[in-house]
């Protein structure tokens, strides 16, 4: 059976090299005492290496059996996921083994351990298990598990890689309950967020005087007299639609690591979607670069939250420029009735000719309304600690500011509301953004 | 006694014994020699206790001592005999500068072996120098020591060249030196060095679990999953049932077989040197080649490219 090779450690290389040099120095004296010392050390090192090779003969991935169990495949951001792997070893004899299950840097191990250093007999399976807390959203791989057989004197080791990768999707924290809990302290309850209007619902609203166009079945006979006739008004719930479009172009990489414009847009989309879902609205998502990267049709409730969080978790910046016109066309194609569209972008669009006017005009012609949200470039990067650095950053930021201002001006000229939120506090700006969204368009 | 002391103390004692032999026999006890010894030993002591570890200080200090030896050894004015005596004192005490490496657990094993071997060679050289000085009847001073040491080294190299040229029995002043006390102390230092390596550890020097190193009451091994973590009961149960570090119950001590091999090699060399002194060198060369060949063959074997990350 094939096996992995023995690797000499730094310690082993030092001891072999040092003893050989010492032996050569001793040979210059031809004194038995001075030859015995390096001979003993060299014999020890060579003997240990050969014996370790013999003891771990056949050590390789074929010698292992593994099974992943109780593993989380989808974990909400900043909660906890679990990972466990059972390993069996069919080696010739026991070894000192180190088992390690590599995980992404953004995973913080909060219980158990992804590493075990133990004496391992072939007849005794081991279980590696741990819980982790993901600190970044996205799609991550755990594994492959690495097993290292250690020479007990630390001179050498053998390593086997077990192809047992596991994929974990870390989703933004979005669900109807989470959105409700998150906003409960400062906002009305989700029930209050539900918009209502006079209609055919079952809930009584008020009485008003009869009009000739009213249905006679709605007359409140007990309240009516000979001079005045009243009718009952009832309420019905209003469910609005909202399509969130996220710019996934290369310009969205602007910002400090972990706080790039794209990550802020995803966080913003999460907040907007959460708020809208809590109000029983239907929410859709379109992630677009110069093509459709992700699309979730308009959905409501738990299923909608689930699909949206998964899509938001998968979304990633693409090494391509953002096609503003294409994004609006793609949105129009996917909407069947007038719907407000919120675009989250850096606004570094670089349009050609009248493409912005044409695209916005086409969108408006179908009855949709566009709201554009972008980060304020002055707040996109954290303020430098020194005055000189601040001036340098301001100098570098000037062209960015000019680009954004130019695009914002053109959009406003087309009648599109543009909100530059104070990055990274998009959550705090969510109220203002939602207030600027004409939700009545998408009433169903 | 820890592993550092087990190797370091006998090494210090072994060379202190050689230095003491010289100082006892120094009938003149001149000041420059004592000064050279004193300065060198002080610097060695300061570095060994960690008072001076900065390379920016130690490096220039070593360089200054080397310069002192080079200038003092020149048979010219204005330094004359005093400079030579100072240089002799520095050379005599110079092993104290590096003996600390024998006991330093943060030094690589190769460095520690070389430090011990260099000390042993200097000690043997010192013994051979004292032997060379004995019949002259002159005062044993630092200056005389330096001159005699140079003569011994020269004779040794001449002897080696003659041996390589096919001479039957050339004069090799270092090969016949034998002092039981020095031998015993060097053997103790070697044993201490080897015992330090016998402590089980992995390639990064991290301790491997052994019966004395795993504490069953260690709270890290308790396995309780914090209750605030949002995990299902079966996930908690799985994490809590994870394997803890195990220790070998009936295995031989780490490196036991290798120590047997080393002991056998040393015994073979002693027997060969006693029975067939000339052929012992041949045996040693063959053994060295075989060991190196085996190690090289072992490390170059690649049976499968998928077996390891390094393949």
Describe it:
The complex is a heterodimer of chains A (444) and B (311). Chain A has 444 residues and is α+β, with helices and mostly antiparallel strands. Chain A folds into 4 domains: 7-55; 61-171, Immunoglobulins (Immunoglobulin-like, Sandwich); 176-190 and 239-442, von Willebrand factor, type A domain (Rossmann fold), CATH 3.40.50; 197-238, no CATH class. In chain A, 34% of the residues lie in helices and 29% in strands. In chain A, α8 links the parallel β19 and β20 (369-375). In chain A, α3 crosses α5. Chain A is elongated and about 130 Å long. Chain B has 311 residues and is mainly α. Chain B has 2 domains: 3-194, no CATH class; 256-299. In chain B, 62% of the residues lie in helices and 0% in strands. Chain B contains 11 helices and no strands. In chain B, α3 crosses α4 (80-93) and α4 (80-93) crosses α7. Chain B is globular and about 90 Å long. The relative contact order of chain B is 0.09. At the A-B interface, β1, α1, α2, β6 and β7 of A face α6, α8, α9, α10 and α11 of B.
Element layout with pairings:
The complex is a heterodimer of chains A (444) and B (311).
Chain A: E1 7-8, H1 10-29, H2 32-55, E2 64-68, E3 74-76, E4 81-89, E5 95-100, E6 107-112, E7 115-120, E8 126-134, E9 138-142, E10 145-150, E11 156-162, E12 166-171, H3 176-183, H4 190-193, E13 195-199, E14 203-209, E15 230-238, E16 241-247, H5 261-278, E17 282-288, E18 292-299, H6 301-314, H7 324-334, E19 340-344, H8 355-365, E20 369-375, H9 377-380, H10 387-413, E21 418-421, H11 426-435
Parallel strand pairs in A: 3-12, 16-17, 16-19, 19-20, 20-21
Antiparallel strand pairs in A: 1-11, 2-4, 4-8, 5-7, 5-10, 6-8, 9-12, 10-11, 13-15, 14-15, 17-18
Chain B: H1 3-25, H2 31-48, H3 55-72, H4 80-93, H5 100-103, H6 109-133, H7 142-164, H8 180-197, H9 233-240, H10 256-275, H11 277-299
